[in-house]
Amino acid sequence: MFNVIPVLGSSLSDQVHQTPAEMFHKPGGAALINCSHSIDGYDQILWYKHSNNKQMQFLGYNDVITGYAVPGLNVKMNGSANKYKLCTLTVEDLSVDSSAIYFCAARYHSASY
């Protein structure tokens, strides 16, 4: 069993929400982590992974349409980063290296879609 720990926490007065708080999975499986926000004008969700004794790793992001994962990381992002919408990070093909703290952050992006 591997421990995948989404960060409990928030920013901007508890306006970014991530679930579940903690999970355990068997090797080869997948872990789903959800994130949403309630911040006016913010339209991106950024996803990060922090493993023991390693630098934080950017995994990808969701915009208002879809998700964009960094290639080669065994992750997928789905959902919309609009206010009150749900974004999901899926960590696939779990292994010992998957055991880490994962977290999301909301961001304002000025590009028009």
Task: Outline the fold blueprint.
Elements: E1 2-6, E2 16-19, E3 23-25, E4 31-37, E5 44-50, E6 57-62, E7 67-69, E8 75-79, E9 87-91, E10 100-107
Parallel strand pairs: 1-10
Antiparallel strand pairs: 1-3, 2-4, 4-9, 5-6, 5-10, 6-7, 8-9
Structural class: mainly beta
Radius of gyration: 13 Å
Q: Percent range for helical residues?
A: under 10%
N-to-C series of helices and strands: EEEEEEEEEE
As a percent range, the share of strand residues is over 45%
Q: What is the number of strand segments?
A: 10
The overall pLDDT average reads 87
Q: What's this entry about, in short?
A:
The chain is mainly β and 113 residues long. Helix content is 0%, strand content 47%. It comes from Characodon lateralis.
Which short descriptors sum up this protein?
113 residues, mainly beta, 6-stranded mixed β-sheet, 4-stranded antiparallel β-sheet, 0% helix, globular
Could you explain the architecture of this structure?
It is a single chain. The protein is 0% helix and 47% strand. About 5% of the residues have low confidence. The strands form 2 sheets. Strands 3-1-10-5-6-7 form a 6-stranded mixed beta sheet, with no helix packed on it. A 4-stranded antiparallel beta sheet has the order 2-4-9-8, with no helix packed on it. It has 113 residues and is an all-beta fold. The chain has no helices and 10 strands. The N and C termini lie far apart (41 Å). Keywords: Immunity, Signal. This is Immunoglobulin V-set domain-containing protein. It holds the Pfam family V-set.
